Structure formats: structure tokens, C-alpha cells
Amino acid sequence: MSALPVSYVAAADARSRLAGLATPPGALGLLGETAVWLSAAQGVCPPRPVPNVHVAVFAGDHGVAAYGVTPFPSAVTGLMVRAFVDGTAGVAVLARQHGAGLRVVDVSVDADLDGVPAEISASKVMRGSGAIHLVDAMSHEQTDAALALGAQVADEAIDAGADLLIGGDMGIGNTTPAAALIGASLGVSSEQVTGRGTGVDDEGLRVKQRVVANALRRAGMRVKDPHDRLTALGGADFAAHAGYLMQAARRGVPVLLDGVISVACALIAEEIQPGSVAWFAAGHRSPEPAQSLALDRLGLSPLLDLGMRLGEGSGAVAAVPLVRSAVTLLTEVALLSDVLEP
Ligand SMILES: O=C(O)c1ccc[n+]([C@@H]2O[C@H](COP(=O)([O-])O)[C@@H](O)[C@H]2O)c1
Ligand SMILES: Cc1cc2nc[nH]c2cc1C
């Protein structure tokens, strides 16, 4: 399967309309570029509004969390799943404000999620993924099952009418596999890709850098293949997230990327399925250094840079009003020719 091509005709129309607006050239900055991107994705200029935004949060635990890479215990992952369901987690609040649909998927949470609707865990791939500096995150079969689960989640959202998808993440410890995946994808060192995540102190950062370095060393040359990389260094939640992104690109639905986990998955998606990145825009910049490195590699500029490091898809949801402004601007701003010769 491959990514659908975006419409270069619609992109060219949008670029020419943007250049003809009653604004100085380039004055709309990234808002203008976002309108061109959406035109290319939708195959129409000006782009249609995006009323039906859908967020899927892929939740999973990571064995590495027990090795000093995060200040929080893995039990928080399952507790936060409840907060997504209750509508009180950060992304749930933002999604409600902006009229986005929200779904949480238990891909690989350690805990039994008593008291949450059974469908959230119905397709669970595994309990927590392996501690990546010691063992593979999962088996190839689990990677395949998770990729398929993510594709199914995208299909269900698209079949229900979603016109813009967002992938979110919840998983204590998951900034460690995200850093390892991006380090392996880009061939850069653990020092360059490792950040503080939820807020490790200096000693925690050193531990985390060592864990990422050991994971990269352990996986060795296998990381050259993106599927093997997910299996060795990622986790079932990452594979599901990557499968979701790839399916969006196959179905031709645009995606707003979030923080370091989402962008790590986007790198993998583009490698497994070249052309996917044309369907992606970057919602925000995370303070995690790996996210900026990965965005550079993908050629994406983030809409927001607020220092947000919540994950959950929250940075992307915060950028939804800007995507909507981009549509409205390219649709409603007058053409300079009409202003000069009324
Ligand atoms: O999105 C990001 O860039 C981001 C940066 C730092 C932390 N997070 C969130 O915090 C959790 C992982 O942080 P940590 O320190 O446990 O690896 C996970 O649930 C993420 O959603 C997310
Ligand atoms: C409370 C909490 C909420 C989160 N949301 C995403 N990652 C998180 C990590 C913690 C610790």
C-alpha cells in the first residue's frame, strides 16, 4: 500500500491565490503555507473548512520507565486513561473547546483498566512494551498487530467523517523510546536526542542518555529497517500511532502532528510508506530536542511554539484554530487586483 498523492494542481492554484491576496507577499507566513498544504490535501482551492477534527490517543506503558528515565510511575498511564474518558485530561479539555472528537485506545497499558468502557481495551496488543535497553520492545507479530490496529482506528474516524486527524500519546516513559527511535532514524547520538520529558533532573537526564545509548547499541544494525526499528526500540503504542498516520495518508486525510512521540511515528511512517509526509503538518514544537531534529528531517515547520510538553495530542489540538484561520484567510481575503481596481 502507498500514500495517495496530494494534488499539485490545487497546491499551485492555492499558491497563486495566496500570492494574489491583498496582503504583502508572504505576509501570512505559516498560515498561508498551511492553507496551501490543506488545498493540496483536499484537492481544492480555496480549501474546505475542517469542522470534523478527530483525535486518537494511543496509550501504552514502557518497561524502560522502571529504570530512572522518568520521575513518574507507570501506574499514572492507566490513571490518565480514566481522565481521558472523564473528559478532564488536558487534551480532552482542548478537544471539547474546539469541537474535536476524542478517542483513547489502550494499545499496551500495563494495568487492567477497571471501570472504563471495555471497548477502550478491546484490541489491546500487549501489556507494557519491553525495556528497550535490555530487550526488544515487542515481537514482529505484535508490531504488525499494532500497525493494523492504528490503521483500523484511522479508518473508523475517516468513515465517520473526520476531515483532519490528530494522533496523541499517553505513556509514562515514552519520551525514551521516542528519543531512541529518532536517534536511530536520523543516525544521531543519544546526547543530541534525549530531553527531559516530564521533567527529569540532571542526574535523571544522564541516566536517560545512557539508556538511549544502550538501546541504540543493543539494537545495532537492525535499526536500518523501520519495521525492525519499531520492534526493537519503539512499542506497541508507537506502532499503532504509526499505522494510524500511514492509513490517513493512504486514505487521503490530512494530519496535524503533535510532540516528540507523534513526530517519531511520522518519521517511521514516511520511511515505511514514502509520500506520507505530504499529508502531515506540524501542530507545535515540543521542547524535546529530538522533535525539532525530526521536524527538520521531515521539512515541517510547527504552527505553535508554546513550550508545551504535555503530549496527548494537546499541542496539535491547540493549533486547530490556526488551521481554521488559514482556511478562512485564503477563502475570504480580497484579491489585491480587486482592491486596486474596484
Ligand atoms: O509531546 C511531547 O513532546 C512530550 C514531551 C514530554 C512529555 N510528554 C508526555 O509525558 C509522558 C512521557 O514523559 P516521560 O518523562 O515519562 O518520558 C507521556 O505521557 C507524554 O505524553 C510528551
Ligand atoms: C499527570 C500526567 C499527565 C500526562 N499526560 C501526558 N503525559 C502525562 C504525564 C503525567 C505525569
TrEMBL record:
InterPro entries: Nict_dMeBzImd_PRibTrfase (IPR003200), Nict_dMeBzImd_PRibTrfase_bact (IPR017846), Nict_dMeBzImd_PRibTrfase_N (IPR023195), Nict_dMeBzImd_PRibTrfase_sf (IPR036087). The keyword Glycosyltransferase applies. The gene is cobT. Keywords: Cobalamin biosynthesis, Glycosyltransferase, Transferase. Pathway: Nucleoside biosynthesis; alpha-ribazole biosynthesis; alpha-ribazole from 5,6-dimethylbenzimidazole: step 1/2. Belongs to the CobT family. Catalyzes the synthesis of alpha-ribazole-5'-phosphate from nicotinate mononucleotide (NAMN) and 5,6-dimethylbenzimidazole (DMB). This is Nicotinate-nucleotide--dimethylbenzimidazole phosphoribosyltransferase.
